[in-house]
């Protein structure tokens, strides 16, 4: 497990000041020395010196160091938790002896584990760094992160391809599609906005157009039929209530209103039927009419 969270893309790269072996000599190596010179930086962590996969990577990157430095203004620094003396002896030894044979890439010593911890790639139980690679731009921001299995080496070509894509994106503001290589065309990644999203301020503003459609055409006829039906039911209930209240008395004020064919002033013709329920019933009838019309337009298959 790593000691802390790994630095993610877009974050400022943690600074460092370490001793590095450069052409057999000890030199102070800092991140700021590269960014102040407007250089990109490939900070490459490897597990340990005198191993099997690590020397293949370091020799491959060293043989193409000029392609990074002069064609891309990018420094390449390899870093491990070995001491500076171990790295110096390893670089000075020949390939037959398991050494590097004198590479020119800086080999940075992180024997106190501070850099590996800062970048979140330290394997604490082993005291070594993961096989991780960080591409840092001249502003000191992390732009790419890759972490491989300890026994899987990295590709110089892929590292340069990603670096070229980042430089292209910064220069032209376009994205780079799959397998993009230097010289290929980019893709515009910005979407033009067509105004702002307009939100209704209240429920009535949202519902008014829908209610207007529900009241139009056949919906109005449906509403009229519902209201008439509800009024008829209400009048019937009113008449029944009057008969029960005064079955024989001719002097009751209720009998006069019944005889005249009018509802009692004490009973509303539409009592028990709210406008909301009428609206809901009308809209339900409209939905049924729409469903019936849609079904009539569909072909009906006959069973054999």
Q: Classify the secondary structure makeup into a structural class.
A: alpha+beta
The outline comes out as: elongated
Distance between the termini: 69 Å
For the record, the CATH architecture of the domain at 11-152 stands as 3-Layer(aba) Sandwich
Across the major sheet, the strand order is 2-1-5-4-3-8-9
User: Could you give the order of the helices and strands?
Assistant: EEHEHHEHEHEEEEHHHHH
CATH superfamily of the domain at 11-152: Glutaredoxin
Amount of beta strand: 5-15%
Q: Specify the number of helices.
A: 10
Low-confidence stretches: 248-273, 300-304
What does the radius of gyration come to?
Answer: 41 Å
CATH fold-level topology of the domain at 11-152? Glutaredoxin
CATH C-level class of the domain at 11-152: Alpha Beta
Give the mean pLDDT.
81
Helix content: 40-55%
Number of strands: 9
* Largest pleated sheet: 7 strands, mixed
Summed up:
With 304 residues, this protein is an alpha+beta fold. The protein has helices at residues 31-35, 54-63, 65-72, 84-92, 114-118, 156-172, 203-215, 218-245, 253-259, 275-296; strands at residues 17-22, 25-30, 40-45, 74-80, 107-109, 122-123, 128-129, 131-136, 142-148. The strands form two sheets. It has a seven-stranded mixed β-sheet.
């Amino acid at each position: 497990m790593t000691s802390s969270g790994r630095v993610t893309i877009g974050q400022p790269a943690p600074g460092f000041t370490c001793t590095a072996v450069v052409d057999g000599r000890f030199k102070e190596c800092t991140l700021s020395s590269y960014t102040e010179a407007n250089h990109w930086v490939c900070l490459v962590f490897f597990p340990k010196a005198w191993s099997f996969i690590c020397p293949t990577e370091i020799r491959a990157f060293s043989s193409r160091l000029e392609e990074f430095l002069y064609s891309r203004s990018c420094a390449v620094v390899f870093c491990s938790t070995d001491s500076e003396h171990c790295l110096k002896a390893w670089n000075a030894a020949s390939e037959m002896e398991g050494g590097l044979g004198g590479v020119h890439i800086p080999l940075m010593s992180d024997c106190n584990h501070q850099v590996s911890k800062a970048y979140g790639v330290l394997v604490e139980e082993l005291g070594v760094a993961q096989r991780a690679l960080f591409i840092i731009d001249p502003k000191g921001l992390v732009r790419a992160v890759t972490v491989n299995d300890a026994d899987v080496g990295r590709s110089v070509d892929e590292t340069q391809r990603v670096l070229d894509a980042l430089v292209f994106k910064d220069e032209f503001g376009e994205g780079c599609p799959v397998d993009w290589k230097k010289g290929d065309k980019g893709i515009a990644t910005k979407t033009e906005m067509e105004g702002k999203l307009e939100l209704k301020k209240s429920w009535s503003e949202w519902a008014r157009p829908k209610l207007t459609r529900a009241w139009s055409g056949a919906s109005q006829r449906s509403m009229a039929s519902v209201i008439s039906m509800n009024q008829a039911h209400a009048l019937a209930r009113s008449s029944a209530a009057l008969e029960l209240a005064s079955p024989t008395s001719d002097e009751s004020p209720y009998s006069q209103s019944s005889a005249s064919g009018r509802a009692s002033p004490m009973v509303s013709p539409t009592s028990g039927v709210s406008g909301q329920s009428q609206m809901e019933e009308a809209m339900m009838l409209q939905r049924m009419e729409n469903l019936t019309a849609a079904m009539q337009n569909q072909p009906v298959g006959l069973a054999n």
